[in-house]
Amino acid sequence: MMNPVRLITLAGIILVAAFARLIPHPPNVTPIMAMALLGGATIGNRTLAFLIPLAAMFISDIVLGLHGTLLFVYGAILLTVALGAWLQNHKGWLPTALTAIGAGMLFYLITNFGVWLTGTMYPKTFAGLLECYVAALPFLRNSVIGNLAYTGVLFGGFALLENTFHALKPATEPVNA
Length: 177
Fold this sequence. Notes:
Shape: elongated
Number of domains: 1
Order of helices and strands: HHHHHHH
Number of strands: 0
Distance between the termini: 20 Å
Largest sheet: none
Number of helices: 7
Structural class: mainly alpha
C-alpha cells in the first residue's frame, strides 16, 4: 500500500512542476520530463505513476492551450515515466543524470516527429524530417539543460524532504523513530 502522505506530497510537487511552465523561461527549459521521471521513480503504484504526471500536464495545458502535438508530448511523458520506473532499481546521481539526458533526447525525437507529421512547415519527406530535426537542435540543448537542472531540483528536493520528514518514506521501508 502506498503511503498516502508520500503520494499527496509527490502529486503536489508534480502539479507545481507542471505549473512552472507558466513562469517565463527559455524555450524548452521546463520541468516536464523531470516531473515524469520523478513520478516513475518515486510513486510505487504504477497506474498513479503514469496518471499523476499526465493529469498535471493536462491541467497546465488547459491553462496554456491545447495544441496539435499533444499526443506526441504525452507519449514522451509516458515513456519518461517508464524511464523513471527503471530508476527505482538504479539509484544514484549518475543513472539519474543519464536518464534525464535520455528523456531530453526522447522528447526531442518524439515531439519533433510530431511537428513534422502534423504540421505544414516541413515537406513530408525524409529530407523534410531531417530539416525539422536540425531546426530543433537549439531546443534539444535547452531541453537537456532544463532536464538536468529540474531533475536535480526535484529529486534532490524530494530526497531532502524524505530525509527530514519520515512520514514521506515509502510504506514498504521501515521508518526509524
